[in-house]
Design a protein that fits this description.
The chain is of the alpha+beta class. The chain is 10% helix and 22% strand. The chain has two domains: 98 residues, Alpha-Beta Plaits; 92 residues, Alpha-Beta Plaits (2-Layer Sandwich). The longest helix is centred in the N-terminal third of the chain and has 9 residues. Belongs to the pseudouridine synthase RsuA family.
Length: 267
């Protein structure tokens, strides 16, 4: 399993497909085996990780596994304890109630890099910082949550995914590094990267799930040899003498009935 941690800069698209207006991940990541596990919006910054493991994306992003992602949000206004308590209980959004979050007010981080362009400045309205932890991944969720409690987000940086800490690694925007999964408890229960299993296969008690799907070879058997023919003839391949006869008790009469829809005299 390979995992690469990347610090996404502001105004970079979380995709490998080229874009005429913005930089994309293809400008920074050149390993064709890596796939993105968890996106960040164009105007968000910070921790992303990429992997060559097929099941890791779903494992990390599924809320059932409680892999909390930590964000630093600079919000418009001096955030109140009442607003933080709302975030902790869950916020009603257009697509439903959010799960309870972990939310605290923090000081402006001294380690944070400058953003280009900088966040708008208004002398008559202060800003404040929130550390927010969520285990969901809805579209623009943190921004919608802070706006719903009256404090719109001005700048958003993802700093952690589970125990992977961008600040501790010291990565600057655009920098990346490969990490060793065995050193992080987050990956000890990751399911194995196995072949696709048929949904129609019923899992037996104590079993290991569905059977792997293997494509059959059209021009031969599974070992690449000639295709074997069945040893049993079909009914249309048999001579009259080979066709099976129905066993009776000697009382069966010949069929003298006319076909359905026609009388015996042909009318």
């Amino acid at each position: 399993m390979k995992i690469v941690v990347f610090n996404k800069p502001f105004d970079v698209l979380s995709q490998f497909r080229e874009d005429e207006a913005h930089l994309t991940l293809a400008h920074f990541i050149h390993d064709p085996d890596l796939r993105l596990a968890g996106r960040l919006d164009l105007d968000s910054e910070g921790l992303m990780f990429l992997t060559d493991h097929g099941g890791l994306n779903q494992y990390i992003t599924n809320p059932v596994n409680k892999k909390f992602k930590t964000y630093l949000a600079q919000v418009d206004g001096d955030v109140t304890e009442e607003a933080l308590e709302q975030l902790r209980k869950g916020v009603e959004l257009a697509d439903g109630m959010t799960l309870p979050a972990k939310a605290i007010k923090v000081d402006a981080p001294e380690w944070l890099w400058e953003r280009d362009p900088p966040v708008r400045y208004r002398a008559n309205i202060p800003t404040s910082w929130i550390e927010l932890q969520i285990c969901e991944g809805r579209n623009r969720q943190v921004r919608r949550m802070t706006a719903a409690v009256g404090f719109p987000t001005l700048r958003l940086i993802r700093t952690k995914i589970g125990s992977i800490d961008l600040v501790r690694m010291g990565l600057q925007p655009g920098e990346q590094t490969e990490i060793e999964p065995l050193l992080y408890p987050d990956f000890k229960d990751v399911p194995e990267d196995k072949p696709y299993r048929s949904r129609s296969y019923v899992k037996k008690p104590g079993g290991t799930g569905g059977k792997p799907m293997h494509q059959k070879k059209k021009d031969g058997d599974a070992n690449g040899g000639e295709k074997k023919k069945s040893g049993t003839k079909r009914i249309w391949q048999m001579d009259e003498s080979e066709k099976p006869r129905r066993k009776t008790n000697g009382t069966t009469r010949p069929n003298t009935k006319a076909p359905r829809g026609r009388s015996r005299n042909g009318r």
